[in-house]
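This part of the workshop introduces the protein records we will be handling. As an example, a complete record with its sequence and its structure tokens follows.
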Amino acid sequence: MVSLALLLAACSGNNDDPPDIRDDTTPEAAETMTTAPIEPIEELANDRTLVSKNELTNEAADDSALEPDDPVSEKAPPLVEIVTVPLGQTIDDYLSKNSFFGTVLVAQGNDIILHKAYGDGYDSGVSNTINTRFNIGSVTKQFTGAAILQLEAEGKLAVSDTLNKFFPDYDGLENVTVQDLLIMQGGFGDFASTIALSGASSKDIESHIITGWGGKRLAYFSYSNSDYWLLGKIIEQASGMTCEQYFVEKLFIPAGMANSRFANDWRVAVAYTAGGLVSTAWDLSLWLEAYFCGKLFDESMLNQIRRGRYNYGWNFRDNSIWWHNGLMGYFNSTVLYDSKSETKIIILANSGTNTSKALGIIEDVLGS
């Protein structure tokens, strides 16, 4: 296998994880969560125009996400594909034979098993490479959750804070907390399925979310882009920075992510902290390494995150698996980390390729 020379040494340690917690936020389930006729931002499953010859479909990675003198911009992305034998070859054979379009990175500990690109972007005629940026949809939410965790550790907010502290111009928010948003029990529905997004300003969306849904705290999990959109506004108030600035300074640079940023396309950009990031498979591997090895916050806080079925932008499965998928038009992404085996699986696809089946095959191969 090939060493992850540019990654930090993989961290080890046992987390006191809860028993198996099942969730239903699979790509198939996500598509059924928004039924209104207006295009949802996370589940734009039938919107081909979003991925037709635009800068998100097949954009070579560079350092444009950061200023030229940022230290992270000196880290060059990998230049060659990696397929190891036998595991990487088995996965590669499956992806090649089943017309997968996108980029896949699979690693265990410090060893890369597979890092390869396949096919091209829908209607673009440009081949995917291992340095192509993809919209990652709701995988963005774990970055939002990490920002909240950092601000909490710095004493700039508390997850017990009620929303009237951050949105004083609206009534009825005294019973909804930051924690409710993190676990998707804020009761704000999904603005993406109920507002015409074209031309909508940030204030328009904020008003629509809060006045349209009223913030009635739920006693159950209900997947909501609105909850994580509001968390973005809270990050900006608590930090005194825009989310773009905060993510670069506090998340991307510490993790070494030179090729990640918020998207320019308005339909993706309006997704904001609920689903507006573009990234590469390599950058996301650096993200996982930084996240689970204490570069972004103290490792002891991981136990705080892994509570319930959903928290801080992560789904949880079994005793050790952290994962999230994202859907945006013909983009489909999955990021998974197994803390027990230190396995990283990153699947970024375009052209309508569903990542769930590929994930299942990869997990089967690794477990065989």
Q: What stands out?
A: The CA atoms of residues 239 and 246 lie 8 Å apart. The chain has a mean pLDDT of 80. The chain has one domain: 2-367. The chain is about 30% helix and 15% strand.
